[in-house]
Amino acid sequence: MSQLAFDIDAMIHEVEVQQMPAWNGAPLRFTTDYYTPSQLDAAFRRYQVERGHFGCVPLSHMWNRTGLTGAHADTNGHTLVSFTADLRHSYLCDGHRWQSETPCTCLGDLMHQGICEQCSWHAIAADENGVVEAWHDHAMPGWRSLPILPESLRIKLQSGESSHRGQAWLDRYPEAWQFDGAPIRTERPTRAPRHIAGRSPWGGFDLAA
């Protein structure tokens, strides 16, 4: 009976999908073209409705927000909204699972995309840091020339410890870069190279130098 119920549910779902209006939004596959965050969200939901949630991230290779770690910002009239697309070789791919003549559609790596909807701007990179840096080039050109906060002072300032040296360093920071959402560049050990949102004294990114 359970198999019969499963088959009936599958038949009902197939009919429902056939009755849905034709899709004319963002592609239900990987794309490098520009689409707004809401368009990408809608496309990923449509894929899930048509083909189910199981394996939807590696099988679709579509841009989605699954498992994101926080590369988002709203600064100086620009926003950063992040997506990932999993192009890595997946055991769910028909070509891999059955070793058949079906071409493998797995294209390579885990990709990252950042979008500034106000400007219809986007950037695609192989890692999150690349997207964050591209967005800062777009939204706040000149950040690459900012002074670098030494590691010892970064630890004290971000832990909330009172530090005369750290405060003196911030007092000499370029005044033009002391605004809500402004980034800071910090010295980092090689094991911690990730740019971190919301960790600058002004609420912007802490950019690993």
What is the structure about, briefly put?
This protein is of the alpha/beta class.
General description of the model:
This protein is α/β, with parallel strands linked by helices. The chain folds into 2 domains: 2-139, no CATH class; 143-208, no CATH class. It has helices at 2-19, 37-51, 56-60, 94-97, 128-139, 151-158, 164-171; strands spanning 73-75, 78-86, 110-116, 121-125, 148-149, 184-186, 206-208. A hairpin with a 2-residue loop joins strand 1 (73-75) and strand 2.
Keywords:
209 residues, alpha/beta, 4-stranded antiparallel β-sheet, 3-stranded parallel β-sheet
Radius of gyration: 22 Å
Q: Report how far apart the termini are.
A: 62 Å
Q: How large a portion of the residues is in β-strands, by DSSP E?
A: 15-25%
Show unreliable segments. Answer: 5-9
Quaternary organisation of the protein chains = single chain
Q: How many strand units?
A: 7
Largest sheet: 4 strands, antiparallel
Rounded average pLDDT: 82
Largest sheet: spatial strand order: 1-2-3-4
Helix proportion of residues, in percent? 25-40%
**Structural class label:** alpha/beta
Secondary structure layout:
Layout: H1 2-19, H2 37-51, H3 56-60, E1 73-75, E2 78-86, H4 94-97, E3 110-116, E4 121-125, H5 128-139, E5 148-149, H6 151-158, H7 164-171, E6 184-186, E7 206-208
Parallel strand pairs: 5-6, 6-7
Antiparallel strand pairs: 1-2, 2-3, 3-4
